[in-house]
Specification:
alpha+beta, seven-stranded antiparallel β-sheet, 2 domains, about 190 residues
Length: about 190
Amino acid sequence: MKRNEALLKSLKIPFDVLLGIVVFMGIVGVGAIFWLFLVLNLTEKPNNSNRDVALHFGRYDTEHRHTGTWEIKSSYLLDNGNDGSSHIVGDYENGLRIGVWCINGYEVQVYNEGILQESLRLGWGNTISYKSYKEGKIQEFFSSCYIDRENNDDCPSQARLLNLAKHYNDLAEKHCTKVKMEFAILP
């Protein structure tokens, strides 16, 4: 009997150690699954629907909104992993729903890890400016262009404005006088 008790006592210590290792591994395994689940949820593409803002300021003429201004700000994740943002401002006249809507300015910015990389701004004081940044500092000049608006249209269409943004380099080479300017902070 004493021999069996001695054997049980000698086996109890390794058994307790083994049980402790199994419990520890179980806790680590549950923790690893939790962290894996958390990391996978954080690395999914974000839902960008809540990153868009649209603002409208109207003036009333009798009971209808006759004239006003509007702007749209958007932030999004680009396919290459960078963050992008755009800002469009404009105005309208002759009514909110059936009136004439104009775009007065368009700006697109690209960020990498929170640092501004590129900025393209079209402002309808007949100017286009483009900036390229490296490590948060301006690297490339920006241009000032005087655009020949066809038919002297005071309100450029959205399609024309977005077309200018897409074909900035071609526009700068063919239709604009490049003017080297000092660094200026965009409003």
